[in-house]
C-alpha cells in the first residue's frame, strides 16, 4: 500500500467518525433521548429504575394529548407524568372518580387500587397555556394536585415512547 492510499484511508476514517459524532449529537439533542424513572409514582406503567426513550420532536409538530406520558423539565429535576387535563378544561376528582368538564373519564391505565386511593380534588380550571398531570400511582405521586402545579408547554421536553431497560420490560409506554 502506498503512503497516499494509507493517508486517504485515514482521512476517510476520520470523516466517518466526525459524521457519526455529529449525527449522534443531532439525534440526542433534537430527536430522542433517554431518561431513568426515579420513584414509584408511575407504577405500574413505569417502574423505578427503568430507562425510557423519549421523543423530543413530537411536540414541535403537535400538542400533548390526554394519556401521553411526558417528561417535564424543572430546575431541580425531571418528572415523568401522564397528561390528564388539557388547556381550558376543568378537572375534578370526587368519590374516587375523575371528571373532565363534568364528564366521568375512565382511567384504563391505572389499577383499581390507585383509583381507590385518589382523594377528592377540585374542581379546578386549567389555564389556556397549561396542562394537568398525574402519576399512575395516585396515592404517592407528586403531580399537579400536590406540588407540581400546572405544567406549561415549554416545561415538556418530550413524550415517553419505549422502555429500553431492563430488557425484559421493553415495550411502548402508551
Automatic annotation (TrEMBL):
InterPro entries: LexA/Signal_pep-like_sf, Pept_S26A_signal_pept_1, Pept_S26A_signal_pept_1_CS, Pept_S26A_signal_pept_1_Lys-AS, Pept_S26A_signal_pept_1_Ser-AS, Peptidase_S26
EC number: 3.4.21.89
GO molecular function, one term: signal peptidase activity
Sequence intervals crossing the membrane: 12-32
Keyword terms: Hydrolase, Membrane, Protease, Transmembrane, Transmembrane helix
Entry keyword annotation includes Transmembrane: yes
One Pfam family of this chain: Peptidase_S26
PROSITE patterns per the UniProt record, alphabetical: SPASE_I_1, SPASE_I_2, SPASE_I_3
Membrane topology, as annotated: Single-pass type II membrane protein
Catalytic activity: Cleavage of hydrophobic, N-terminal signal or leader sequences from secreted and periplasmic proteins
All copies of domain Peptidase S26, residue ranges: 10-164
Highest taxon of source: Bacteria
Keyword ATP-binding (UniProt): no
Location(s), subcellular: Cell membrane; Membrane
Enzyme class name: hydrolase
UniProt-listed Gene3D superfamilies: Umud Fragment, subunit A
Similarity-based family: Belongs to the peptidase S26 family.
Protein name: Signal peptidase I
Amino acid at each position: 500500500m502506498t503512503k497516499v492510499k494509507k493517508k486517504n484511508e485515514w482521512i476517510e476514517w476520520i470523516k466517518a467518525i466526525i459524521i457519526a459524532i455529529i449525527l449522534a449529537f443531532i439525534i440526542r439533542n433534537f430527536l430522542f433521548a433517554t431518561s431513568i424513572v426515579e420513584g414509584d409514582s408511575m407504577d405500574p406503567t413505569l417502574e423505578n429504575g427503568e430507562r425510557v426513550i423519549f421523543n423530543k420532536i413530537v411536540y414541535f409538530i403537535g400538542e400533548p394529548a390526554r394519556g401521553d406520558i411526558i417528561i417535564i423539565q424543572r430546575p431541580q429535576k425531571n418528572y415523568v407524568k401522564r397528561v390528564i387535563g388539557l388547556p381550558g378544561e376543568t378537572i375534578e376528582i370526587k368519590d374516587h372518580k375523575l371528571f373532565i368538564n363534568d364528564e366521568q373519564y375512565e382511567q384504563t391505565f391505572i389499577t383499581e387500587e390507585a383509583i381507590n386511593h385518589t382523594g377528592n380534588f377540585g374542581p379546578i380550571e386549567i389555564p389556556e397555556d397549561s396542562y394537568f398531570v398525574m402519576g399512575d400511582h395516585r396515592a404517592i405521586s407528586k403531580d399537579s394536585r400536590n406540588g407540581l402545579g400546572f405544567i406549561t408547554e415549554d416545561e415538556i421536553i418530550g413524550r415517553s415512547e419505549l422502555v429500553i431497560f431492563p430488557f425484559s420490560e421493553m415495550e411502548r409506554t402508551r
